[in-house]
Fold this sequence. Notes:
Structural class: alpha+beta
Number of domains: 3
Low-confidence stretches: none
Strand content: 5-15%
Number of strands: 12
Strand order of the largest sheet: 5-12-7-10
Number of helices: 19
Amino acid sequence: MILGLAMFASAALILSLTSKLTFIADEWDLMLLRPGWGIGQIMDPFNEHPVVLPSISFKLLQELFGMDSARPQQLLATATFLVMNGVLFVYLRRRVGEWAALIGTVLILFLGAAFEDLLWAFQIGYFGSLAAGIAALIALGRDDRTGDIAASVLLVVSLAFSSLGIPFVAAAAVEWAINPRERRRRLFVPGAAFVFYVLWWIGWGHTAESSIDPGRITEIPGFVFDSFAAGFTSLAGLATGDGSEPDQPNLIWGRLIALIAIGLAAWRIKRLGRVPTGLLITGAAAFAFWVLSGINRNEMRLPTSSRYQLPSAIFMLLMAASLLDGIRIRRPGLIVAGVLSVVAISGGIGLMTSQSEDRWQPASGHTRATLAGVEAAGGDVTEGYRFTVGTSFEIPARAYLDAVEAHGSPAWPGDAIDGLEPPYRATLDASLIDAAGVAVSGTPPPLPSKSCRPFESGVPYAVRPGALRIVNPSGSELAVSASRYSDPPGTPVGAVLPRAVAGLYLPEAGGGPWQLTLFGESPVLCSRR
Length: 529
């Protein structure tokens, strides 16, 4: 009952914070750069990740609901996130009891430090990999043939979501190695997923760009410890910002907690007289994740990065549950843990809310403005033009316009543009001007002198779309700026040399007038009336 309410509250929060977001960054790869249903479009990697199931889900939702809104993708991602938490709860409950499992799961449901995962539908890849991977560990816990078959299938599913499935394959390999039961007949448990990944890599994955640098091996111990510490910082609700700071201000607290946790773990192992099997298995998964992340480290992939906090926190909970397996935490301990969790959750919600409102929503607004600019350019889009919307890759304008024609537009609609805040309208104009290649040229159109009129420097004038002739009779350069939707002077589009004549073409862009502002001495503009 309480878990269900917590899941409902988490989903309500996430969907509220994503309600004003359009498709974000890497989602455009799945929306636009994989046209059709060919095997290559589905199996092609994204960075180092197989994104088979995310690609299929995005394509299917695009076909069913269009791309006017990112809501269908957000709903599916949030649902997958809830499934992942449900599976996590089952794993934890079997080891530490319902109340401790509830506390651990609720911390993940409101893990604000992982806002980049929770608010980003593209991270359905992480959610799916984690859900299937944890479910595979549960299946292996059955220690029978049925569990083995289920685990092998779930591991393949985990890899089909993202390469976050690799740590779970490592965990399954350790379980296979230390479990004396029919090793030869059970080789398929980690083997099926291993073969799937190798075949995918040979066929498609080897084409991905990779940040793997063997020279970073010496940095791995420090990266692993900082990842461990960052996980504690996140679970405690102490994380700040987006995790892009190499040394997050509150990471010191995570490091202190990590040292204490390591000491307590060592004490527990000494009391047991052995390392628990479950800890070896889950520890293998955590270690594989942190080591692979460390080898792939770059300026965008730090131990404190928001996108890494979700898997780090989950792997830490899995290890803790395995270490405490069989212990039933008494009521006073649960009460203290519950109070601390409420404090942590409060900090997490505050961070996630501020990141959504201060960073993600404005970024989404500018993305929609950029797209509106490309659409406004329409048939005037420069041949071969490409643009970016917070992506590490360029989007072909023609591919985007074709998708709009087939599936609808996620851009700001025309009737909303006039009411947009000035920064969004400025972005729209800059996008329109860039897409249409609006720029002063050295080839003026042959317009009659009777169509010319003098301009006052620095004063915006309304002009119709079409070809313009600009005369600079002075001995200094004449700067030219244009605006269609934004406030004048708008976007610089070039300059006219001293005592020269230049041309400028303004596209229709909805048929309305442009505002042209000239900065110089006694400029003259000629246009068709």
